Automatic annotation (TrEMBL):
Residues 8-238 form the NAD-dependent epimerase/dehydratase domain. Keywords: NAD. This is NAD-dependent epimerase/dehydratase family protein. PANTHER family: EPIMERASE-RELATED (PTHR43574). InterPro entries: Epimerase_deHydtase, NAD(P)-bd_dom_sf. It comes from Paenirhodobacter populi. Pfam families: Epimerase (PF01370).
Amino acid sequence: MTTSRCLLLTGAAGFIGFHLAQALLATGWRVVGVDSLNDYYDVRLKEARRDLLLRSPGFRFVHGKVEEPGLLLGLMAEEHPDTVVHLAAQAGVRYSLENPRAYLEANLIGAYELLEAARAIPPRHLLMASTSSVYGANTSMPYAETDKCDTQLSFYAATKKANEAMAHSYAHLYGLPVTMFRFFTVYGPWGRPDMALFKFTRNILKGDPIDVYNGGDMRRDFTYVADLVEGIRRLIDTIPVRPVTPADIAPGDSLSPVAPWRVVNIGDGVPVQLLDFIRAIEQATGRSAVMNMMPMQAGDVPATWADGTLLNRLTGYHPRTGVTEGVARFVDWYRGYYGA
């Protein structure tokens, strides 16, 4: 089935943005992608993603920072997109300890510019990326969207929690339908070089040691990127509506009682031990890892685990790619791309 709908996508040359753009272009969407192509990690990888997207006649690329005053407003006025998906952000928990201003500018000011543009020229649906890091010091798992989230452990997580609150205020004040999604350790082909899978694969193939934090006593809800993209695609047409009364909100639904605003976890729902993840990489590469055991890093958490009930109830979807399969696909891509 094809469509001629228009999507404004920020962070289009990023890992997740690239995969989402590819998926929507393949079904006939027109995608206007914005990206700053900054040097947080290898710009050549971002440029390669962008160049692949530019092969589609339905893709338009705009080089710019989302925090640039008026950039997004101008694009909204020019394109009048049906849907906006906001993925642009300064990512990474650890880097936020070194350069918090980058998070202030991209994550807070960038979100403000987006919300102002959407207020002026409302899309049918605004979807914005948050993160499982907002659950912070919560220890009750699996994490549910209705859990209280007031104990963020990094400035990165704090900016994402602020984005949720900012978007809620605009949804309440201006009737802007907003869905926030909380991601859980996304991995797969074309992934970010600062993520564990990329670093582990690179070092294992070279025979170099890998740094394993908290002595390997870490659990993550690893989510394969194609599963994440399918969740986002299904949420595009799952538009929140302001409830008439609190009784209209189903148990377990994060729908706001005062705004057309909802937050949804997109995670695999299965916590995987870090050492088991490393074994999957060893299996896919045919090499053994040399592990350098390290203490827990500041701002990090020992475990994440998504409750995927709400996503499944809203869309009928649940992520389905296991770690062994997903890691093997990444390693195949890595070897092909880098000739390793």
